[in-house]
Amino acid sequence: MNILGIIPARYGSTRFEGKPLALINGKMMIQRVYEQSKKAAMLTDVVVATDDRRIFDAVTGFGGRAVMTSPNHKSGTDRCREVVGKIGADYEAVINIQGDEPYINPQQINQIAELISDSDTQIASLCKPIRDIDELLSHNAVKVVMDKNGKALYFSRYTIPFQRNESDTDKWMQLSTYYRHVGIYAYKTSVLKEISELPQSVLEKSESLEQLRWLENGYSVRMGVTEFESFSVDVPDDIRKIESVFKNC
Question: Binning pLDDT at 50, 70 and 90, where does residue 98 land?
Fold first, then answer.
C-alpha cells in the first residue's frame, strides 16, 4: 500500500511560538520528527505541511520535502487533506504524524500503517496503557475506551470508564485497564476527503476532541495498543526535559 506520512507544522502558537524550529540537542525539532518518520519502512513518502515560509525553508534546507498550505486550517486533518490534493499522487492512505514529538518511534508509525493497511479500517490511531494515577485523572490526557474488536467507542478528557462503586480513585486501576490516546492518526485517503468536509459536531465541541466528530458521524477508529512512551513539546520547558531523556541522541 502507498502510504504518505504528513507532518503538520505551524509557526504560530500561543504557548510556544516557532516551536518547529526550536533546537533539541542541537537539531531543529521539525528535522528530528522528519528524520524519525523517514525511518518507518512502511511509509512511501514523508512531507511537512506548513503555513509558514520559515518552516518551509528550514525543511528544504536540510533536504526534506515540504508543502505550503493555507493558514486558515483549524486542524491537522484539514491540512493533510490540502496536501493530498496538492501532491496529486495516488496514495491509498495518509498518516498524520505529530510535529511536536521529536523522538517519535518509527515502530509506532509502522504499527499504525499496518492497521490502516487492513481493508476494513477507515481510520486508525494508537493508545497506551495508563499506569500513573495522576495521568489517569488529568484532563490533558485523553482517554479512550474500545470494543472487543479494538474499535474506539469514545474518547474523553475525563476518566473513562468511571468506577461508580469505588470512591477511592487510587484503586481504579486495579478494577479496569485504562488507555491514554496517542495523537497519531491514519486515514484511508477516500475517508480523509470525507471527514474533512464534516461540520463540527456537538460531542467534538463539548470535549474539544476532533475525533469525536468522526465517531458521531458513523466512522470507525481502529485502535492499536503501544508500549512506547511519547514525548511531546508543548511549552519551552519541555525541551529541557526531553533533552535529559535523550542525552546522546
Answer: very high
Which residue type does 37 have? S
Does residue 112 fall inside a structural domain? no
Q: Tell me the β-bridge partners of 95.
A: 5, 186
Instruction: Please tell me the distance from the alpha carbon of residue 71 to that of residue 60, in angstroms, as a whole number.
Output: 19
Residue 88: the pLDDT is 72
Question: Does residue 69 lie within any of the structural domains?
Answer: yes
**80, part of any domain:** yes
Range of the domain at 19: 1-104
* pLDDT tens sequence across 226-237: 999 888 888 889
User: Which residues, including other chains, have CB under 8 Å from residue 64's CB and lie 6 or more apart?
Assistant: 31, 34, 46, 48
| Bridge partners of residue 124, in order along the sequence | 186, 222
Question: Which residues, other chains included, contact 189 with Cβ-Cβ below 8 Å and sequence gap of 6+?
Answer: 84, 91, 92, 93, 94
Residues 34 and 85 in one domain: yes
The answer to whether residue 204 scores a pLDDT higher than 90 is: yes
pTM given for the model: 0.94
pLDDT at residue number 231:
87
Give yes or no: residues 181 and 134 share one domain: yes
Asked whether residue 172 falls in the same domain as residue 219, the answer is: yes
Where residue 81 sits, what CATH number does that domain have?
3.90.550.10
Backbone angles phi, psi at 67, to 5 degrees: -130, 130
Q: Could you tell me which of 186, 188, 183, 234 has the C-alpha nearest to residue 209?
A: 183
User: Domain check: are 223 and 192 in the same one?
Assistant: yes
136 burial class (0-12, 13-18, 19+ CB within 10 angstroms)? middle
Residue 89 reports pLDDT greater than 90: no
The reply to whether 110 falls in a domain is no
